[in-house]
Write a structure and sequence with these properties.
Blueprint lengths: L2 H13 L6 H13 L6 H6 L6 H15 L4 H5 L1 E4 L2 E4 L12 H11 L5 E6 L5 H9 L2 E8 L2 H13 L5 E4 L5 H4 L5 E6 L6 H5 L21 H10 L3 E10 L5 H10 L2 E8 L5 E8 L1
Parallel strand pairs: 3-4, 3-6, 4-5, 6-7
Antiparallel strand pairs: 1-2, 7-9, 8-9
Helix pairs in contact: 1-2, 1-4, 2-4, 6-7
Length: about 280
C-alpha cells in the first residue's frame, strides 16, 4: 500500500464519523507520522512511495484518536496563531482564528504608541501576549494564568519564540494578583465565557479542552463582571481594555464596562460577522 492509498482510506474512515475536514486532518497526521511538513513539495512526492509499517501504525493510531474526538491541534502538539507557532496539548485552550480579531483590534488601536505596558489576562498558551509583543512596541508584557498545565505550555511558547514576556501565575479574579502588575496602557482578556447551557451541548472535540477555560458562570458573564471591577484599577487613565466575547454577549459586556466608567465602548465583529470583541477606554 502506498502512502496515498493509506491517506485515502483513513480520510474516508474519518469522514464517515462526521468530520468535514477529514482529508486535511489526515494529511496533517500523515505528515506528522512521516516527519514531513505537508506544505513542502517533498510530502506530495513521498505519497507514491510504499508505506513503511512503523509509519502506517503511527498514522492509523493518530487517526483513531482523531476519530474519537481528540482535537487535531492536540495530536499535532503545535498550532499557528497570527503567524506564530504555539505549542498546545491537553490542559490548555486551543488558539482559534476568532481570537485573532482581538489581536487585530489591539494592534490597530496601539500601533502608533511606543513603550507600552500590556497585561494579557487568562493567558493560556500565551498566544495573544506573544502576538502583541511581536506586533506592538512594548516595554513590558505580562501574561497572567492560574492553571499549572496551561502555564507549562505558556513557558514553552515564551522560550520557543525567544520572548521577553513576564509570566505571572495567579488568578485574575484575585485582587492580590492584580496589584502585582504595574499600571498598563493595554489590558486584554479572552476569559471563559460559555454559559451553563453551552457547556451541556459542547461539541465532542471541545470536551477535551479544560472546562475551567470555557465555563464563565451560568450566564457566561462572571469573568467580565469581576475582571472589569478589579483590573480597571491597573489601567492608566486613557488606557484600553479589550475583551473577546461569546456570541450575543456584546450588549451585556458593553453595559458592564460602561457601568464601570469606561468611555468609547464599542464592539467589533470577526471575519464571519459575529461580534467578537468589546473595547473601551478608561476615563
Amino acid at each position: 500500500m502506498t502512502y496515498r492509498e493509506l491517506l485515502k482510506a483513513q480520510a474516508e474512515r474519518l469522514e464517515s464519523t462526521g468530520n468535514d475536514n477529514a482529508l486535511f486532518d489526515c494529511s496533517e497526521l500523515l505528515g506528522l507520522a512521516m516527519g514531513i511538513d505537508i506544505r513542502s513539495g517533498s510530502f506530495e512526492s513521498a505519497l507514491d512511495g510504499q508505506a513503511e509499517s512503523s509509519v502506517k501504525a503511527k498514522f492509523e493510531e493518530l487517526c483513531s484518536r482523531r476519530a474519537n474526538g481528540e482535537p487535531l491541534q492536540y495530536l499535532l502538539g503545535e498550532w499557528e496563531f497570527y503567524g506564530i507557532p504555539i505549542k498546545v496539548g491537553k490542559g490548555v485552550l486551543i488558539p482559534r482564528q476568532d481570537t485573532e480579531t482581538l489581536v487585530e483590534l489591539a494592534v490597530s488601536k496601539c500601533k502608533n504608541s511606543e513603550d507600552i505596558v500590556i497585561a494579557d489576562l487568562c493567558s493560556g498558551s500565551g498566544c495573544i501576549a506573544l502576538a502583541l509583543e511581536k506586533y506592538l512596541r512594548c516595554r513590558e508584557v505580562y501574561a497572567v494564568e492560574k492553571s499549572e498545565a496551561a502555564t507549562g505550555y505558556l513557558s514553552e511558547n515564551v522560550k520557543m519564540n525567544a520572548s521577553a514576556i513576564k509570566l505571572v501565575m495567579g488568578d485574575v479574579l484575585d485582587e492580590g494578583c492584580a496589584v502585582t502588575i504595574p499600571e498598563c496602557d493595554l489590558i486584554v482578556c479572552n476569559p471563559p465565557y460559555l454559559t451553563g447551557e453551552d457547556m451541556e451541548r459542547l461539541q465532542r472535540e471541545v470536551t477535551h479542552e479544560p472546562s475551567e477555560a470555557l465555563f464563565g458562570g451560568e450566564d457566561g458573564l462572571d469573568f467580565y463582571r469581576a475582571v472589569t471591577r478589579i483590573w480597571k484599577n491597573r489601567l492608566k487613565t486613557g488606557g484600553t481594555l479589550i475583551y473577546e466575547i461569546g456570541i450575543g454577549q456584546e450588549d451585556d459586556v458593553m453595559q458592564i464596562m460602561v457601568q464601570h466608567g469606561f468611555e468609547n465602548v464599542r464592539c467589533k465583529p470577526d471575519p464571519c460577522g459575529i461580534m467578537r470583541c468589546v473595547i473601551g477606554t478608561k476615563k
